[in-house]
Amino acid sequence: MNCEKITYYIEKGFLTDLKLSEKLQIKLHTMMCKCCKNYAPDSDAVNKMLTLIKEEDSTASLSETEKQSLKDALKKFSDS
C-alpha cells in the first residue's frame, strides 16, 4: 500500500465511516511509515481549523497572496 492511498483513506475517514479493510490498511501502513503516522493528526488539526473558520464566517476566503503563502509554508514543512 502506498502513501498516497493511505492519505486518501485518512482524509476519507474525516468525511465518512471507513470500511474495516481501509482502517486496517491505515493501521498497518502507519506502523511502518513515520510520515503517514504524522500526517493523520496534522490533517485532523487542519480540518478542524477550516471547520471553525467556515462556521465563524461562511463568506471568509483567502486572497491569492494568502493562498500562495500557505502553499509555500506547507511545501517548506513537507520538505523538512
What does this structure look like?
- 5% of the residues are buried.
- The protein is an all-alpha fold and 80 residues long.
- The chain has one domain.
- The longest helix has 23 residues, at 34-56.
- The model has no long low-confidence stretch (mean pLDDT 85).
- It contains 4 helices and no strands.
- It starts with a helix and ends with a helix.
Q: What value does the average pLDDT take?
A: 85
Count of spatially separate domains: 1
Q: Per DSSP, what share of the residues sits in E-state strands of 2 or more residues? A: under 5%
Radius of gyration: 15 Å
User: Spans of 5+ residues with little confidence (pLDDT < 50)?
Assistant: none
- What does the main sheet amount to? none
**Treating each run of at least 4 consecutive H or I residues as one helix, how many helices?**
4
What is the count of β-strands?
A: 0
Strand/helix succession: HHHH
- Rough outline: flat
- What is the CA–CA distance across the termini? 23 Å
The structural class is mainly alpha
Short description:
This protein has 80 residues and is an all-alpha fold. The chain has one domain.
